[in-house]
Amino acid sequence: MKILVTGATGCLGSAVANHLSAKGNAVTGTGRNLDLAKHLSPGITFVAAELSDEKTVANLVQEHDSIVHCAGLSTLWGSYRDFQVANVEATANLLNAALNNKIENFVFISTPSLYFDFKNRLNIKEDDPLTHKLVNSYAMSKLACEQLVKDAQNKGLASVVLRPRAIFGPNDRALMPRLLRLANKGWLPLIDNGKAQIDLTYVDNVAHAVALALENLPDVSGKIYNISNGEPITVSSLFNKIISEFHLNARCISIPYDLAYAAALAMEALASRAPGCPEPLLTKYTVGVIGRSQTLSIEAASRDLNYKPIVSLEDGIRHTASCFNSGNRVQNIGISNVRKVQKVQEIDQPVQNNA
What is Dmax (Cα atoms) for the chain? Predict the structure, then answer.
């Protein structure tokens, strides 16, 4: 199979490209960072491309059978216009090109942030109601993209939407760096004693789910699947694991939810007025994520795709910490086959994944 993987210089995209290549597929990766592309597995073709450019995308997709769309602006903070260009316009260009070039399969990486409503929700299924008021511009853009994928599927494109929860791994530039930024201040916030239950997903498990989705298309076309490690954990237990595995000089401090939310409001207000509108240390969404329970049902993916996580949460955290602590980042082909490739980004730099 000839597969185009977008966002191949990011945490997820690189893992997907490497995983699919290791399974014998002819993989083309695309992204913006040529330096990071040098560290993809041998045999992967890399093409630098701007996905918001329609003509570039039209040329890019030619001679491929399938597209896995991992690229996008994935951050908690940013303008609606930025998300519109990086996510919605790019996805529209890829789908149009896929239809025009008779691409066989399309896998889109979405987000379970579409479920998030600042309330406790456990074992959420794909057909459970989405929140009426989406939490941020990122979630809004992803919902718009899902509708575009649905429209393309109705026009004949075999497609699947995956909603992986809280992806992390050695090349993570979103989840772990945010926690490490907080830990650098000497503390991690436990909202209401950290009793909320959450799901995470090690990046290799998402890559595995992508491969299964491709193998099962077109039979599962039009379906949406939650993806996670299937190991809900309390925030308190997670933070203590991170402190231990990353050897952090930090402690957990319990904060009442209302107080944390008020602090986040103030930080957001200050950040909005600061030059460049930098991401605040704490956002309302962050408070909600670690202060309210949200877990996903992966029953549908297990039933239809035969999805089972290939890396446990404990092993994933341990391996990620080992790579960060050693001062190197890695491209994943699975924990058992790792190449060290790049020095860790300073964790006080702005956190954003725009692969």
Answer: 55
